[in-house]
Amino acid sequence: MTDYKMHLLICGGTGCKASESDEIKNRLNHYIEEFDLGDEVQVVTTGCFGFCEKGPIIKVLPDNTFYVQVAPADAEEIIKEHIVKGRPVGRLLYTDPNSAKHVSDSKGMDFYKKQIRIALKNCGFINPENIDEYIARDGYQALGKCLTEMSREEVIKEIKDSGLRGRGGGGFPTGLKWEITKNVENDQKYVVCNADEGDPGAFMDRSILEGDPHSVLEAMAICGYCIGADSGLIYIRAEYPLAIQRLKVAIKQAEEYGLIGNDILGTGFNFKLELRYGAGAFVCGEETALIHSMEGLRGEPTFKPPFPSVSGYMGKPTNVNNVETFANVPVIINKGAKWFSSIGTEKSKGTKVFALAGKINNVGLIEVPMGTTLREVIYDIGGGIKGGKEFKSVQTGGPSGGCLTKKHLDIPIDYDNLIAAGSMMGSGGMIVMDEDDCMVSIAKFYLDFTLEESCGKCTPCRVGNKRLHEILDKITEGKGEMEDINKLKELSWVIKDTALCGLGQTSPNPVLSTIANFENEYLAHVQEGKCPAGQCKSLLRYDIVEDLCTGCTLCFRNCPVGAITGERRQAHYIDQSLCIKCGACFEKCKFNAITLT
Amino acid sequence: MDTINLKIDNKPVVVKKGTTILEAASGIGIDIPTLCHMKLDDMNIENKPGGCRICVVEVNGRRNLAPACCTEANDGMEINTHSMRVINARRTVMELILSDHPFDCLICAKSGNCELQDMAHKLGIREIRYQGEQSTYREDTSPAIIRDVDKCIMCRRCETMCNEVQTVGVLSAINRGFQSVVSPAFEMNLDHSVCTYCGQCVAVCPTGALTEVDETGKVVRALSDPAKTVIVQTAPAVRAALGEEFGMEAGTLVTGKLVAALRRLGFDHVFDTDFAADLTIMEEGTELLNRLGKFLEGDKDVKLPILTSCCPAWVKFFEHQFPEMKDIPSSARSPQQMFGAIAKTYFADKLEIKREDMVVVSIMPCVAKKYECSRDEFKTNGNPDVDLVLTTRELAALIKLSNIDFKTLPSEDFDHPLGESTGAGVIFGTTGGVIEAAVRTAYEIHTKKKLPKLDFDELRGMEGIREATIDFNGLPIRIGIAHGLGNARKLLEDIQAGKSEFHAIEIMSCPGGCIGGGGQPYHHGNASILKKRQMALYTEDKNKTIRKSHENPYILKLYDEFLGKPMSEKAHHLLHTAYFDRT
């Protein structure tokens, strides 16, 4: 990056690409050429900046100007005003919602203030398709250090001392996993990167692979060195085309530089890498299912033990880690276990990336130290609830997690605290809900997902979740009985107790946690036939207030099912047995004569 | 050897390392109920996907319950197999399975023989608290097997048999979640797939999801039609297993009672497929000697080893999987089809009736035989040589239906001329039997000497692949035997690679041979039953006065009166066949 005076970093993550960041880049380049600035200004496509709510994002270096929600039409002004005349384009700057002032540098934004970026350190800073930029930011230094200065045992000790735990959800100590795999004797071992990110709304791993693919490749090579594997496989879902393309480019470049392949850095260590594509089955995030899928078998889990560390891919010892886990490794080697373990809580070290979504102002990708509270994440970083509504719940851990409430807002986030609160860390999905969300429907939504994604192998998950879903359906239809709430709990516990894999064992968590934290809502549905959030259609009731109705017949004419009767100029009436709760009458009535309860 | 100490239900147990909790418990008489698990001892066949979750037990210190069938016992484990937590979980899981299972037990083919029904009874299920949608699928009917997968409980046993044991690869789990079911790929019909109809899936299915095509009704109609002459043949393996259906000990020979029962059912002539087995030996043995002779003369084109061709599932297997080798197996038809061809020519002539007025019924241990008799090459002007095939199980049902008290029936003899057989014909029903029968005849024809000893112990046993060299008076004849199509595949791949040194190979699709056929009484995972059936056949062989096919007087008479000599033109026309590329 030395030859140019200025750099325009434009986000090339999937979200910003969908909002035409490629076209913005084209236009920027067009105007750079028009003003003959080709030798001085360079446009660089980077990975995700995280602030997806405000994408597409452009960052101007060296002055750190951070433009948000840029449209292709803005390209001309950015070049003409900012680059040529040195006057930042005010209207494209981020406006602080509290002070209503423009903030030019991202460091001054609440969204970034409380973040510490380790796994995401290069995302938004480098061109992921240029290995030199990765190397310029200490890339492959850790691999070199491991291969030339450290023994396998020393590297593993460093990872163990750092306290790094698996970021895929389980939280198993990474160094210990490496050590176990190392200690299994075998001529052939494998390192597998689990990039089968499947939680609804989660995109941490995708962003890392799109924004900083080399960090994962480097870590896999380090892991290979430690456990004694010469082969690495990245299992990635085929619906991540951009991540796949960037991985391909990265692997090719690393091979050309001799950082992947035979005799790496002249140390005699060989490590080759291959991509394996998944078809997007959630259960293939479970490591045994993932391995079966890579072997060309049906993607379904098998009973552990044997663990992959002993018998994994092709029956060989296999170390499976998730993308984010790997992304932490080079930093730990470079900066040391002591530094890493100084961040976080007692049992959860370092940071965690979360995909913040739902009814929150700042939707995006964030990385915070373990121990940050939910309140800080939701209010300080996330900017609070959209539209000034009231916070109701936050769902963490994806379909395996649970729904937490106001009373949990001050819990420091770490693996153990979330489990104690009835949820879990999961891979990092975080969905915020407000007063308009019906918690019974939320539980049903997650079960919908699990039902679809269950492999169908074991009875509790295949049939049990179906029955849970049916009971929830019955409740949201207003046909629930008190006994159904008991049934939900009893069946949930048996499913947790008997299901084969992690997917099944945790699938009732959204049900149990919503019953535990929002039992009143269940009771309202069952006992009063009401949905407090007004989400369950079957429980809505439209009525015409006789005194207010003028008999204009507008509602009568708009009702699609003929549920409304009445004479002209006389009060009309809704036949509840026919009403499909579409709300057409409610919207059309000019006299506010229709009530919704 | 490493041993492990643990406590199950407070009883101390010492087991070998690697033992599962289920095995450890069973060793001290603790019965943990299982549903999907199946282990055929000594046959290397095990299905333990850990899917049904009926066998869950409580292990001290473990967060959730552990499936006993696939959890290894560890040192110091304390296990509770019947705590209330376990019983509640087991019963709930059972209710879940039943909530997605049709309630048509009264008319289900498996009623009374259903492991799901038994388990529901054992667990005392009286109500199903969690009811809801039941999964429904299209019923798939083929010439031999019916798939009614509404009744599939995803135990995956059929998949293990089809893929791991038989390497046919037709059945596997498809779809996800509640829609998951075992099916041919793309929900294809079985008769469009490479299914061999070996019926091993039917043999292990715990419910009525996989059953044979029931032809009892057609047999009843034929027997009640006065215009038809209905004759019956019974395969060797049937007599060693039928008794089980009537509460008799496995391995009880019921040949005489079988004949008596068939006669009481109203068959006009009760014959024996063993007769046709002897005929098969005459043809196949001659073919072997012909090929061997040419080989010894230096003929480079001669195809060796010769492969047996009695098993219809095996025939269909190589037609699909190894079509380029279709000229290696013997061209001899199976005994069932030889019988049909002779019955509808030689015997029909004797009776002076038209073949259309004769109905040939086979009693077979096999479901593939139902398919075999429907093949076009075994028909004359559309009229099949064998009209209907009943499995051993269907015959048992028919006997019960007819209120025949099987156990008290007297012992009766087969009719002549197609009912006379030798010991060689009897052992066709077990793995190794066909080749032993062939050796007895080929040896004596080739060497023109009497065999000093008829029992070839080196050809017997239950090993999946066996080999032996028999000394034909200075000429070493190398014999291979495979049962189970996975084992057959290994031998075929050797032949393909030019690595095979055998002169003759016997192949049977079903583990154990016909005694373990897909149409036999259900063994419910007890492999010792197969061994007992095998022993019964060897006993019957031993008790026969004539034990070599070429000494069967009725066979000699048949050649004399009708066929001429083995491999004659007439024999070729009636007793041999061709194979087709089905890829």
In CATH's first tier, which class of the domain at 279-332 and 420-575 in chain B applies? Alpha Beta
**Portion in helices of chain B:** 25-40%
In angstroms, what is the radius of gyration of chain A? 27 Å
- Give the number of DSSP strands of chain A: 20
The helix fraction of chain A, in percent, is 25-40%
The coarse silhouette of chain B is: globular
- The CATH topology annotation of the largest domain in chain A reads as Rossmann fold
Give the tally of structural domains of chain A.
5
What attributes does this structure have?
heterodimer; A: Glutaredoxin; Rossmann fold; 5 domains; 5-stranded mixed sheet; B: 583 residues; alpha/beta; Ubiquitin-like (UB roll); Fe-only Hydrogenase (Larger Subunit), Chain L, domain 3; 18 helices
What is shown here, in short?
Chain A has 597 residues and is of the alpha/beta class. Chain A is built from 24 helices and 20 strands. Chain A has a five-stranded mixed sheet, with helices on both faces.
What can you see in these coordinates?
The complex is a heterodimer of chains A (597) and B (583). With 597 residues, chain A is an alpha/beta fold. Chain A folds into 5 domains: 6-113, Glutaredoxin, CATH 3.40.30; 131-340, 3-Layer(aba) Sandwich (Rossmann fold); 351-434, Ubiquitin-like (UB roll), CATH 3.10.20; 439-528, NADH-ubiquinone oxidoreductase 51kDa subunit, iron-sulphur binding domain (de novo design (two linked rop proteins)), CATH 1.20.1440.230; 540-596, Alpha-Beta Plaits. In chain A, strands 9-10-8-7-11 form a 5-stranded mixed beta sheet, sandwiched between helices. In chain A, a hairpin with a 3-residue loop joins β3 and β4. In chain A, α2 crosses α3, α7 (152-162) packs across α10 and α18 runs antiparallel to α19. The longest helix of chain A is centred in the last third of the chain and has 18 residues, at 459-476. The radius of gyration of chain A is 27 Å and the shape is globular. Chain B is of the alpha/beta class and 583 residues long. Among the domains of chain B are: 3-122, Ubiquitin-like (UB roll) (Roll); 279-332 and 420-575, Fe-only Hydrogenase (Larger Subunit), Chain L, domain 3. Chain B is 33% helix and 15% strand. Chain B has 18 helices and 22 strands. Chain B has helices spanning 21-27, 84-99, 115-122, 157-165, 200-204, 216-223, 255-265, 273-296, 312-321, 335-351, 368-372, 392-401, 423-426, 433-447, 485-496, 528-543, 553-563, 569-575; strands at 3-8, 11-16, 38-40, 45-47, 56-59, 66-67, 78-80, 140-141, 145-147, 172-174, 181-183, 210-212, 229-234, 269-272, 306-307, 358-364, 379-380, 383-384, 388-391, 465-472, 475-483, 504-508. In chain B, α8 (273-296) crosses α10 (335-351) and α8 (273-296) crosses α14. The two termini of chain B are 50 Å apart. Chains A and B meet through α17, α18 and α19 of A and α2 of B.
